[in-house]
Amino acid sequence: MLLDELKKRFVDEVKLRGYDDKYIDKIEEREILQIAIQQGVGIEPARAALAQVCEHEAYVLESAVLKQIKERLEVAAAKDGKIDQNEFDAILDAVRKAAHGRKNDRDLKKMIILVMEDTGLNRVKTGWFRDWYAGLKRDLGMV
């Protein structure tokens, strides 16, 4: 299957799966990529094609959002190995823009915390009398 044919198929699949929210989560992405693999297309060209289709059709690809979160966390932690509340809020603002309003702040905060936990970048700067990170996790029901 040619890449152009694959992109046309991806447009249909993306519209079918993301019709209600214009958001392609990891499960939907995996299902779409399976189609490409079954057609004999490699995973990397299929991912690139899917990313192009989502961008062109104004759909948000969750894996792209997660990648951006990870990159921003690595930059924020590069100085001293810790994330402070201002850095977390800056990452949230950037991710909010990348998600184009398809996810609410609560879901985005959970995504950031999950990436922090998964990558080991969950060392945070706390104040003398207050731990903003523990409070945030508690508020989100993640403890």
Could you explain the architecture of this structure?
The protein has two domains: 3-58, no CATH class; 62-139. It is built from seven helices and two strands. The N and C termini lie far apart (47 Å). The protein has a two-stranded parallel sheet with strand order 1-2. The chain has 143 residues and is mainly α.
Feature tags:
143 residues, 2 domains, 7 helices, elongated, two-stranded parallel ribbon, mainly alpha
List the helices and strands and how they pair.
Blueprint: H1 3-17, E1 23-24, H2 26-38, H3 43-56, E2 60-61, H4 62-77, H5 85-99, H6 105-119, H7 132-139
Parallel strand pairs: 1-2
Helix pairs in contact: 1-3, 2-3, 4-5, 4-6, 5-6
Number of strands: 2
Radius of gyration of CA atoms, rounded to a whole number: 18 Å
User: Can you give the helix content as a percent range?
Assistant: 55-70%
Number of domains: 2
Structural class: mainly alpha
Strand content: under 5%
Mean pLDDT: 91
Overall shape: it is: elongated
Order of helices and strands: HEHHEHHHH
Biggest sheet features = 2 strands, parallel
Q: Helical element count? A: 7
| Unreliably modeled segments | none
Biggest sheet strand order reads: 1-2
Terminal CA distance reads 47 Å
Short description:
The chain folds into 2 domains: 3-58, no CATH class; 62-139. 67% of the residues lie in helices and 3% in strands. It is built from 7 helices and 2 strands; from the N terminus they run H-E-H-H-E-H-H-H-H.
